[in-house]
Amino acid sequence: MKFAIVSSLVSLILSCDHVLGQASLLQKRFAIEGPLHSYEDLTFTMEYEISDFIDDSMIGYTLYDGHKCKDGDGFGGDNDITLNAGYILHKIRTDNAPPGDGSGTRSVKLSSKVIVPDISYTPLYRTDSEGNGVVKYCVRMGVFNTDRNEPMSMEINFLETLVTLSINMSGDIVIEAELSNAEPLLEMNAQGVAVDAYICDYDDNTVPIMPTRQGQTVRVCVTPVPEVLAAGGLMRQIEKFDFFRQIPTVTSQSAILPGTDGVAADLLTVVQCRPGTMVCAFETLLGAKFFQGEGIINGQGLAYLQIGGGDMSTERRMEESIPDLLSPNDVLRRKPTVISINIRLLKLENFGPLLLTSGAPATATAAFMTTALLGASLTLLFTIGLLH
User: Fold this and answer.
1) At 209, is the pLDDT very low, low, confident or very high (cuts 50, 70, 90)?
2) What is the distance between the alpha carbons of residues 160 and 381, in angstroms, rounded to a whole number?
């Protein structure tokens, strides 16, 4: 009878793993990462990473004449200016990656160029208090479930990037350019509410931690909250992170030490974090003292965010030519955001016979199930761009 129970549980676990694997692949098929952005000669080039499941016919983009973009947060959006009279030139370029099932990736580059002085005769052009021309527009990049020109096609995911150009048309043309959807990101970063932390598997999905007798390997994922992702915020690095517990004994363990550029504190931690991605993760083997009875393990740390991926050379050039200009990424480099996670420990016996297949006796005092109380799965990241 015991063998039958174990066999059924193994079948159930394998079935769940299969479902999770399929869900993860489905999520990857319609994911959009980026954009990596560069600026030169009145031209913004934005590079996105999508899956190889998306062919060229399933990619679409739109330009809007303001920062409300398509929906305007429910209060009305801007006008579609994709087919404009030539005052903003734009083009899309895709790589030649062969089609696949979505497990691979391909890149898409979307460029938009403002034409001077044509832009000054359009509703997009405004003059600021110093007499400089200001142009604001939105670029929306989206992926569809099928050929975007089909009558029944749907936009499944999208990213909107807000662009601001300041143009001095007297004498030499001086350009200041920025991705200007940074204000909500900077505010949430300053308040320490810009990221979520959660217990995760190797696909970055939220999972419970199974019981163990001696210590516990804990994998923590850190990702910007949906509002920050929507504003263009991505992970740069985890600056520090510590686990600690007060009861029944004071116990602490460092996973990442400050001032090391996100390097693991010791051989008990492995860090996976690449600047410009949506998720940074680290895995730590916790000491056995953390699992002495029911209670809470706290995790606290700091993380740095960035806007766009990798290359910040454009902003450095801006700061050199305009000393008083403090770019959004420079602000983010100076101010880390807080990471916080609480892990609740429960006795194994509270979960009944289901967990007896782990090999730990029901009476063991050092075997627990832990569950993250705070966090968000990557499903939330996927639904940011979904149509309402």
Assistant:
1) low
2) 14
